[in-house]
Protein: Hormone-sensitive lipase
Organism: Lates calcarifer
Amino acid sequence: MDTKAVFAALYSVCEENATFFSGGAKGSQGDAARRLVDAMKLIQEHARSLEPVISGFAAVYHHFDFDPHIPANGYRSLVKVVRCCLLHIIHKGRYITANRRSIFFRVAHNAGEMEAYCNALCQLRALLYLAQRMLHDNSHGNLFFHDESGLSESFVREYSSMHKGCFYGRCLGFQFTPAIRPCLQTIAIGLVAFGENYRRHQSGIGVAASSFFTSGKYAIDPELRGAEFERITQNLDVHFWKTFWNITETEVLSSLASMTSTQVKVNRALSVPPVPFDLPLAANHRASVTIAPPSAHIGTAPVQMRLISYDLREGQDSETLLSLSRSEGGAISLSLGLKTKRLPSSPCLLVHFHGGGFVAQTSKSHEPYLKSWSQDLGVPILSVDYSLAPEAPFPRALEECFYAYCWALRNHHLLGWTGEKICLAGDSAGGNLCVTTSLRAAAFGVRMPDGIVAAYPATLLTAYASPSRLLTLMDPLLPLSVLSRCLSAYAGNEPQTEKQVEKVSTLSLVRRDTALLLRDFRQGASNWIHSLLDPNRASPSPSTAAETPPGATDAVRKSISEASISSPHADPPVPAEPSEFPTRKLSVKSQTCQDLGSHSSTSHSAPLLSERTPEDVNFFLSKDADPSISSDLSSVAIPPPAGEEGLELEHPREFPLGFEPLRSEQLAEMRVQSSPVVKDPFCSPLLAPDSMLKGLPPVHIVACALDPMLDDSVMFAKRLRSIDQPVTLCVVDDLPHGFLSLSQEFAPSSLRRTRPRSHASTESWKGPIGACRPLLGRSLLFLLGLKLLMGRA
């Protein structure tokens, strides 16, 4: 259905229902009918303003695609989300038309549904206005706003005050495939129930039990869920998110996942001692370089890894490897008492870096799909459990990943690998570490990996505004406030510890838990019964917030944005003077940018980052204006708002007169804060100069069309293509950020593959909405990329 047809259908169904319910019924039904009529009329008003904007974007967003065969960028994603919202409204309107005369038709319920989507449409209208501002400033194919003030600050300021609860209630996950919405709803209900009981209990049983009973009220009251979700995402610190995301690390859940996942012969947790060793240089095998153990922030410590192999291979049962194994308290993963057939060493090894925002999870959370990969690829997998922020910020994780990569090169005989081909794979934060580990390998002069497979990688950790990052306003898995806290923790700007809860006795804890459980059970049951008996029960307003749990207020810390947003053309990626680094102390000097001068007799030393000039960085690709493109963009773009009488306002109005988005009472104090750390190319590889990127191996990127980090992938692929680096870009539709961890299997009924005419290897995969189950460990896209890089396709 084209744009005109969508809007025509919307006007028709809204007008018809508004006319029908304007008959003037009395009582509660009349109040609900008036709410429904008002919602229908307001939807039409928003639609009339949106129609020319959507048509304008549809005419210009192709200028920002990777190439004509890969139709993906943040502008397209915003338009798609708006269209998806309109289609949901049309579908709901047609349902109302077909059932409004039935005696079972609930006017109040349907009025609530239409009001929720009307609120969502209002907020999407505001995002499109901000996107029009970006079109004015980000011309010629660039997706990121390149200034530390202005639009980026405006977006952070608007995000902190705009109402977001409507996207987490009835409209939760409306933009994604229907198959994944129940999963997102379960996560949202679990999150708000967990957040309500966070800090209230010291025992895990108390938190889990209370969360279970309180979850009922959030399941039956979507408005309450949305308000509580908004409160949690805006106010709770990174330690809460670390705790919540690590639920999958608990013994019960990890055991269940292990039982239902592919059974493998080898699944060993390893603890590698922090011992320096030598590796031969790639350019001269007779010369070597010393690989020092990780030392930043927390000093030297063993590096944790996990070896997974579907088949037992040579060396994987050696005494040397067994001596490195660490106990996890579970069943032995490799039984030497059984006569298992030992296969020859594999010619390929996959080194995996897990995601988790640099602050949470380990390889244990990612075991299910890693086991499937090991079976499907027929190769061993070494997954690195790097240290997490905020306790171990940048560059600790990078140091450990690089050390693990070099250790695997040196000890291939222990891993069931011949030492021939090696690839790096990771998702989100792990995708970032794949690229930066390769950059560091090039700086040290050691062997480079044969390929990189990165799923929805974070390649730019600054607060540069981009159209896809506007999606953080509605994304249930990656809100901007949460994203900024994770990236600030990795940059070292978040406190390493949280305020301790006052200890109570065991007896008091049991009494309190019991009382709270009974209270929450009564409240949940009462709400459920009243919702059945009284369909017109008033719902919380969008700005209403649930009460803050005791002790939570004191622990709320000020959040900041994703870090600095100064232009790489104005400042070097890292300041030239060491004193300009953040004032936080490093326990041990970082080795990330160390000079290899001590090996000058045997190796080539990489230049220090501080020695590079601003001209080395070519982040913004196009500098000369194309008249035809500029003409197209000017018809849609909106210039920055001007101050009254030529004076610049401190906070100028961002939206046209007559329109104002819904505001929230759950304000988040967010601000753009400069930090040189996030502009380090080893932290944000998108800011790396061409000379560094030219040393990368072939890169295969899997991105999500509805992911707030989409523009990171598109722009990074453009950077690589502009310097003739082999790059593959795959874009999947209708799936959220983190899809690899949301299911165990992907079996689309139909996939369409397009091969572009381009010197860079690119691919586009799409599946119709509802035609596939959630994308996961057996992801055809990810496995295809791995097989292509390993030469096993």
About this structure: The radius of gyration is 27 Å. Residues 263-326+342-466+677-748+772-790 form a domain with the Rossmann fold fold (CATH 3.40.50.1820).
